[in-house]
Amino acid sequence: MDPVVVLVISLSCILLLSLWRQRSGKGRLPPGPMPLPILGNILQIDAKNISKSLTNLSKAYGPVFTVYLGTRPTVVLHGYEAVKEALIDHGEVFSGIGSFPVVERVTKGLGILLTTGNRWKVMRRFSVMTLRNFGMGKRSIEDRVQEEARCLVEELRKTKSLPCDPTFLLGCAPCNVICSVIFHNRFDYKDQHFLYFMGKFNENVKILSSPWIQICNNFPVLIDYFPGSHKKLLKNIADVKQYVLEKVQEHQESLDMDNPRDFIDCFLIKMNKVGCEQQNILLFSFPLVLICTLSAKVQEEIDQVIGRHRKAVLHEIQRYIDLIPINLPRAVTCDIKFRNYLIPKGTTIITSLTSVLHDSKEFPNPEKFDPGHFLDKSGKFKKSDYFMPFSTVKRICAGEGLARMELFLFLTTILQNFHLKSLVDPKDLDTTPVFNGLVSVPPAYQICFIPI
User: Fold this and answer.
1) What local confidence, expressed as pLDDT, does residue 335 receive?
2) Which residues are part of a known binding site for heme?
3) What pTM did the predictor assign?
4) Whole-angstrom Cα distance, residue 386 to residue 81?
5) d(CA 113, CA 327)
6) Residues of the binding site
7) What are the pLDDT digits (tens) for 255-282?
8) Do 45 and 51 form a contact (C-beta atoms < 8 A)?
9) Which of 62, 199, 230, 237 is the most exposed place for a label (fewest CB within 10 A)?
10) Which residues contact 401 (CB under 8 A, 6 or more apart)?
């Protein structure tokens, strides 16, 4: 037989087998668009704006539907009711971690974001408790944020009211708070180590949100055998990890078991008290931990200090920017009957946080920035169950408290010291993200900080 004919027949059989495997479990999963062999529904999803693509598909298939990312079925939850039913009503079952191959190459099954079971519990409990109690008898985390807010203002004064893109400086401030907690000292904004850190971090955020990374996550073979921006991502993380490990070694040489100076010291003291298995969990997870948390009294203080109208503004900022449009992939921990569908154990779950934060029933004209979304008819602040910028319940972001405190203190400090002037009419500002993948990456802009 002609070799060409044999090749064509073989490829056809492979494609048909792939299609059969994709569709064989269709009766158990929610409906969705017909996938192509091998590619699945990749061509129906815009890698630059995944959230919008999922919204369009939900109009045809409802709030719970299935898409194939490559040959892997993924159940999508779109809208508040579906997300609440899964993450809150069935939170334990939907608390597993889905496939994220690019990040898995870095974490190797450790860390906080993409682990489950005992490893996740050990690392999260240690991190949250250490950081929550870190200010007791020492400088509180709030003190560190306030200090950084003052330093940020001084840097903005150096712009001398001239137009500037403040993105880098505004990113330095929260990063420096984390560095202060982990390394004991903040960095000067011109410090070479700090600039190195920030450069790596900013580059990685853009790479992680790029279309290429979405493709790599769906076809992991590309990660190991093909060139691309993922190689730069992995190298950046390895470089930062090496720097942190060197700092850990320095701390070991000057460690005082009775007087921890920072997070690294607390980490080393904990290692001396736990068994070998937990030491391994902590040791290999720590360099990847760049999170913080603090007590729940933050919300009470915000109410007392800034009033409810300003609190509505802070909530609306978080809702409007939709920083994390698609939650990190989850997986069901066991077979579950969900809305008359049977979702098998291990199935990847995607929850659209955009669909919750931009729900038009809860937030009229959701594409418009309007603090009134969080005010009742009498002008009082009103809570909303739809407010999920940090996800919810079991896998809620451990840094939620710190993020809210930073947003409050940085924003109010800036507004107390500067008039902000846009170079274009505010109504003509385009806030459409450059990428809308893992993170919403904002477009470049310029603004003038005019001292009051």
Assistant:
1) 92
2) 397
3) 0.77
4) 9
5) 11
6) 397
7) 888 888 888 888 888 777 765 444 444 4
8) no
9) 199
10) 292, 293, 294, 295, 296, 298
